[in-house]
Amino acid sequence: MLDCAIIGGGPAGLTAGLYTTRGGLDNVVMFEKGMPGGQITMSSEIENYPGATAHNLSGMDFMTPWPEQCQRFGLKHEMSEVTRISRNEDGIFIILKSDGSTDLAKSVIVGTGSAPKRAGFIGEDKYFGRGVSTCATCDGFFYKGKEVAVIGGGDTALEEALYLAKICTKVYLIHRRDAFRAAPNTIARVKATTNIELVLNGSPEEVLGDAMGVTGVRVVFQDSSTRQIDVPGVFVFIGNNVNNQVLIQEDGTFLCDMTESGEVKVDLSMKTSVSGLFAAGDMRESAPKQVVCAAGDGAVAALQAISYVDEHFH
Ligand code: FAD
């Protein structure tokens, strides 16, 4: 039986792997369905992880040493997709994999991450990471002193537009309706910000670009008219999918308590409502969705998993 099963090999899972093994757990396996590294490997550049000061450091290059560092302390990596985590009456976790096989574990740290929703306009995938972004904290700085477009009309879109308005000379906030679905106070702040232009009743039809990246976005309005907005950056905030499927039980309920939007409820120790089950990174409630935070969560969860195994199995 495993001391700890880690589900997901992004920054949260890898850090959990480092801390559990280095902290004394013997039999720890990290289940990752693809290559370890997580979402950040899709990013062309990361410059907000403390100490990572190399110029033009890609997300892939940044994450490359992480698995090797964990393996040095004994973390085992299994390339498998986990389909379900359940728990038997003795409190042992059952890890069901897509090939039908199972593993048993004393504790589980789940860090399966999240994925921002795509809007589906032409060029969105082609220019993702080259001008199309879903993270203002990550990429906003690259557009310092420039104009950008923001797509969306909810709280996140408006808050990110306000964030970008502090860095960029102008923000075009493009929303398909004439009213926003956000907190009244946030809407008032957006309307009072002079360098945010509201582009309402319009949806992005196509993001335009060249070999260097995005050059603009063409918006189509409800009356079928169009407008081309010339910007090097387009930020899409239309929601986020949490990768929580592994927690869904045979009867359709979740293994642990979840928020209404499908994030795992945790306390400050990354403990879920189920003893021995911890959640870390983008999938937990109120996650800032940053590498440094996911790594921090992974470390916290690992320290708790070590205590849990010591307390219950020794
Ligand atoms: P993820 O990184 O999402 O990792 C989860 C892992 O779990 C994945 O590898 C996935 O394959 C695996 N997995 C999922 N389901 C299963 C399953 N059922 N079985 C097995 N494995 C599974 N953050 C920053 O701090 N700075 C940046 O500059 C920055 N730029 C970004 C740019 C882009 C384009 C994107 C997409 C994100 C960026 N982020 C950035 C955000 C950052 O990548 C995330 O906050 C971080 O990766 C979250 O880590 P995580 O470990 O929680 O989840």
Q: How does this model look, in words?
A:
The protein is α/β, with parallel strands linked by helices. The chain folds into two domains: 2-115 and 240-313, FAD/NAD(P)-binding domain, CATH 3.50.50.60; 118-236, FAD/NAD(P)-binding domain, CATH 3.50.50. 23% of the residues lie in helices and 27% in strands. The protein has helices at 11-22, 59-63, 65-71, 136-139, 155-167, 184-192, 291-313; strands spanning 2-7, 28-31, 76-78, 82-87, 93-97, 102-110, 114-116, 132-133, 147-151, 170-175, 196-200, 202-210, 213-221, 226-229, 233-236, 240-242, 277-279. Strands 1, 2, 3, 4, 5, 6 and 17 form a seven-stranded mixed sheet that branches. Strand 5 and strand 6 form a beta hairpin. Helix 1 runs parallel beside helix 7. It starts with a strand and ends with a helix. It binds flavin-adenine dinucleotide.
